[in-house]
Amino acid sequence: MIKNFKIFILNLKIDEKRRENIIDQLKKQKIYDYEIIDAVDGNKIDSKEMELLISKNRKFINPINTNMSKSEIGCALSHIKIYKKIINYDLDFALILEDDAIFINKFTEDLKKFIIKNFKYKKQIILLSELWEFYKKPLDKNNDYEIVDVTNAFFTHSYFINKEAAKSLVSFNFPIKTVADNFVIFKIYDGIKITGLNPFLLKQEKVQLKSTISFETDLKQIFLFRRFIYKFKNKILKKFNKFKSHKL
Q1: Domain housing 46
Q2: What is the pTM of this model?
Q3: pLDDT tops 70 at residue 90
Q4: Which runs of consecutive H residues, i.e. helices, occur in the chain?
């Protein structure tokens, strides 16, 4: 039985076309129970306030937030806003959708149950978007889909998250250290299990709905030692053909 579950939609108030898009997408899926969250427009945050919202943690070799744009900071703050709601509502799970998400298949009740059944880790995210890299061997599968162990991914337009992962991300990434979709960092440093759906269920509308976030961040191999070990291990595993990708 699915309990304590909610769908959250991120949308900037001024982006009416994008809001219409996601509402239309949900209607097509016969989904009517959701909450629209006003996204944070990073470009409207003044410099003094921004200073308080960005982490000044000096223990890292290179500051994670060095090259984040205001839009990226706003996006990260928007997702943190939802994580705090998950905690306050005492939800077991939540599905987070950004307003440019497009379903490419039916989001059936059976699929939802299959996804939630696979929350088997204390802190876990299940991505419904394209996966940059994942293990071929699934963690679980049904007739149409697999849950896979993700080693790299970048998109935040559609994912499930449980409450413990939400708590952990609020603690780790507020004030903001890094962009909202830095899943490798969340996996390595925050202990969150990053999993995903194969084949993926949602994509982004990139033609008619231009992104309100300009991705300018270059992390420049931050967290040098741990990230090096992580990438080195994956490089070895690739030689044994253990990975797959949704890269387009």
Answers
A1: 5-244
A2: 0.85
A3: yes
A4: 16-28, 47-53, 70-88, 109-117, 163-173, 183-190, 224-239
